[in-house]
Every structure is written in C-alpha cells, then in structure tokens.
C-alpha cells in the first residue's frame, strides 16, 4: 500500500507538501498540485481519514439518524416515504457543502438511538440530524454541547432547533380555497386526535372558516384514522353516513391524508354519488401515486418533505458555523395546495342532489 512518502518521492516534493495538498491547510502552487495529484492517482494512494481527523480541527462529517431504511409498509398498502425524502434533501445540501453524511437506521427501535448518537460522537461528527417518520414530539438522549443537533419532522421540549411542516397553514390554505370555490359546508375527516398534525390542521381549518364568516360545526368534524387498520373504513363510512344525513349536509370532504381520500372515493361512489359533480373530496400529503392516479385526480396539500430536508441541512450548517445558536424557534416549511379535478365549484344542483339522496335513505 502506497504511503505519503511514496507520493512525495514520485511527485518530487516533500511529504509536508503532500500533506498540505491533501488537507488543504497550506499554500501549494498549481504546478505542484498537478504533480502531487498525478502521483496519488498513479500510486492509488488513499489518505488515512482517521489520521486526517486527528490532525484537523473539523471532521467534515455529519451524523443522520432515521428509520427510513428499515421502515417498510406492507406491499398491499400505498404509503409515502417521508423519512427518505427528507434524507435526500439533507444529502443534497451536505454534498454541496462537501460534508459527508453518515446515516444510521434505528431499525424501528427508539432504544437504539443513544448508541447511535454515541457512535457518531466517537467519530467526531460536526453535527447531528434526527429524522422522524411523522410530525411528532420526541425525547432524545443528551448530546454534547459542542455538537449541534437539528430535529427534522419532529420537536422536543428542550427547544432544540427543529424543521417542521406548517400543518396549520396547509389546512388553512386548502379550506380558504374551498370557500373561495363556493363551498360553505366543509366536512373534515381527521387523523388521530393525539398527533401534532391533527391539532395544528384543525386550528387552520377553524381559522379559515372564521376568516370567511362561517360558523364551526362540530358535526362536520370526526377522527377517522386507525393507522391503516382494516376497521378504519368502518369509521369513515359511519362519519360519512352521519354527515350526509344532516339537515344541511357537506358539499366537500377534507381528508386527513390521501390514503383516507382513496377510501372516501369508494364509499361515496358505493352510495350513488358522483365525484365531483355531486360532492367534492380533498386530501392531504400529495402522495402522487394516489393523487394523480385517482379519477378524478385528487385536490390535496403537499407535505414538503424534500424541502424540509434541505432546510434541516441548511440549519445544521449554520449552527456548525456558529450562526443562529440563540434562535430556538422551529423552522416551518409550507406546502402548496395542488388543485385538481376532485373539487368543483359549488352549485345549487349539488345541494339538491345531496338532499334528494338523504331523503331516499332508509330511516
């Protein structure tokens, strides 16, 4: 195996000059750089990263902890890959800054996180990013003060710098757009009530109604999420049935995610309703495998996972450089409303059709 001294001899320079070229910690002329580079290539010399790390004040390494690699959904269930898209965004930014990302997967075990952090610390990473599967509160072990940590798609109670989806704004913008299209009775089939996204999106939903001068009706809001369990369809069916039987039924159903919207399509059609002529449907996620292949294509809100990864990477680089360390406010990343054919302008015919349908149902 070639050594730094072999490279120096072939390039006709000192070992110290070769070291300056490799580590970039001293001036080297263009002619010398070319000679050393050629010698390294000819000899197949590989610098010792461990030795470089010992000499350098910075390792150029960033540790990333995620569950994206081993989190696998059943093949029969359509699912997005939020963790992976966030990781891709982080990698893009780090590559531009010539930082090396070391990725560790939790294998779905939270108790693996302390060991992974210790491993990264032992490799002298300059910063850490923890990526969660969905918007949630997390509790992580303590990280050395000299190693900045950024949370992506999650937050904690310690005001650790975090990058989060702006769920409140996303739902607000969707409902505001529905109102602008003439809808006044807007149903909301939510995700589980115990998750952060539901709390924030519900707030956005109510705010948009208030801004439009519309009263909040609790009969139009029901949680229908069971993490994809087969019984979830029973909850959705019951919620739709109750809402369609109201004296003033909804003209549009907002769904907690696109997978739920897929089921709503089937239920509404099984009850003799046409989409969107009789009733409209909107989702959340912009999971394109669903949103773009449904007929009609689904109106939905984009969850900007890739952009969140980019922002997480940028924020960590700022912290590594010493900037923004006193800023503990989360970075909120907003997503676009993708307006597709599943929502139509509200007309009087919509209401007539729904009332006729409700009257024809068995008591």
Summarize the structure.
This protein is of the alpha/beta class and 363 residues long. The protein contains 13 helices and twelve strands. The chain folds into three domains: 52 residues, lambda repressor-like DNA-binding domains (434 Repressor (Amino-terminal Domain), Orthogonal Bundle); 129 residues, Rossmann fold, CATH 3.40.50; 155 residues, 3-Layer(aba) Sandwich (Rossmann fold), CATH 3.40.50.
As for the number of domains, it is 3
Strand order of the largest sheet: 2-1-3-4-5-11
Largest sheet: 6 strands, parallel
Mean pLDDT: 88
Quaternary structure state of the chains depicted: single chain
Residue runs with pLDDT of under 50 for 5 or more positions = 74-80
Query: What is the CATH class name of the largest domain?
Result: Alpha Beta
Number of helices: 13
CATH architecture type of the largest domain: 3-Layer(aba) Sandwich
Radius of gyration: 27 Å
In terms of structural class, how would the helical and strand content be classed?
alpha/beta
The CATH topology annotation of the largest domain reads as Rossmann fold
The CATH homology group name of the largest domain? Response regulator
- How many E-type strands? 12
What form results from the Cα inertia axes? elongated
Helix and strand pattern:
HHHHEHEHEEEHEHEHEHEHEHEEH
What is the CA–CA distance across the termini?
A: 85 Å
Would you give an account of this structure?
By secondary structure, this protein is α/β, with parallel strands linked by helices. It has 3 domains: 4-55, 434 Repressor (Amino-terminal Domain) (Orthogonal Bundle), CATH 1.10.260.40; 61-160 and 305-333, Rossmann fold (3-Layer(aba) Sandwich), CATH 3.40.50; 167-299 and 339-360, Rossmann fold (3-Layer(aba) Sandwich), CATH 3.40.50. It has helices at residues 4-11, 15-23, 30-43, 49-55, 82-96, 113-122, 167-180, 196-211, 232-244, 258-270, 288-291, 305-320, 348-360; strands at residues 61-66, 100-105, 127-137, 149-155, 162-165, 186-190, 221-223, 252-255, 280-282, 300-301, 331-333, 337-338. It has a 6-stranded parallel beta sheet with strand order 2-1-3-4-5-11, with helices on both faces. A 4-stranded parallel beta sheet has the order 7-6-8-9, sandwiched between helices. Strand 8 (252-255), helix 10 and strand 9 form a beta-alpha-beta unit. Helix 1 (4-11) packs across helix 3 (30-43) and helix 7 (167-180) packs parallel to helix 8. The protein is elongated. The N and C termini lie far apart (85 Å). Residues 74-80 have low confidence and may be disordered.
């Amino acid at each position: 195996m070639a050594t730094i001294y072999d490279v120096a001899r072939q390039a006709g320079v000192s070992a110290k000059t070769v070291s300056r070229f490799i580590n970039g910690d001293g001036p080297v002329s263009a002619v010398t750089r070319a000679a050393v580079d050629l010698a390294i290539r000819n000899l197949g010399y590989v610098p010792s990263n461990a030795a470089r790390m010992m000499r350098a004040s910075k390792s150029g390494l960033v540790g990333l902890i995620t569950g994206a690699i081993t989190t696998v959904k059943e093949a029969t269930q359509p699912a997005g890959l939020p963790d992976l898209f966030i990781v891709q965004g982080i990698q893009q930014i780090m590559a531009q800054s010539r930082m090396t990302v070391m990725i560790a997967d939790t294998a779905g075990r939270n108790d693996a996180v302390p060991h992974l952090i210790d491993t990264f610390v032992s490799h002298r990473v300059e910063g850490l990013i923890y990526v969660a599967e969905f918007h949630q509160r997390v509790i992580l072990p303590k990280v050395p003060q000299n190693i900045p940590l950024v949370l992506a798609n999650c937050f904690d109670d310690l005001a650790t710098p975090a990058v989060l989806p702006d769920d409140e704004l996303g739902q607000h913008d969707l409902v505001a757009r529905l109102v602008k299209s003439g809808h006044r009775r807007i149903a909301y089939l939510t995700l589980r009530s115990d998750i952060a996204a539901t709390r924030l999106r519900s707030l956005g939903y109510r705010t948009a109604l208030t801004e439009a001068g519309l009263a909040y009706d609790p009969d139009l809001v029901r949680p229908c999420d069971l993490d994809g369990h087969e019984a979830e369809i029973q909850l959705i069916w019951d919620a739709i049935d109750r809402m369609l039987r109201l004296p003033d039924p909804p003209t549009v159903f907002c769904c907690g995610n696109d997978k739920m919207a897929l089921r709503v399509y089937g239920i509404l059609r099984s009850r003799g309703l046409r989409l969107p002529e009789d009733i409209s449907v909107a989702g959340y996620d912009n999971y394109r495998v669903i949103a773009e292949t449904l007929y009609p294509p689904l109106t939905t809100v984009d969850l900007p996972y890739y952009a969140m990864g980019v922002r997480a990477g940028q924020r960590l680089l700022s912290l590594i450089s010493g900037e923004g360390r006193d800023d503990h406010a989360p970075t909120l990343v907003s997503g676009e409303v993708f307006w597709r054919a599943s929502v139509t302008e509200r007309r009087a015919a919509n209401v007539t059709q729904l009332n006729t349908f409700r009257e024809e149902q068995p008591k």
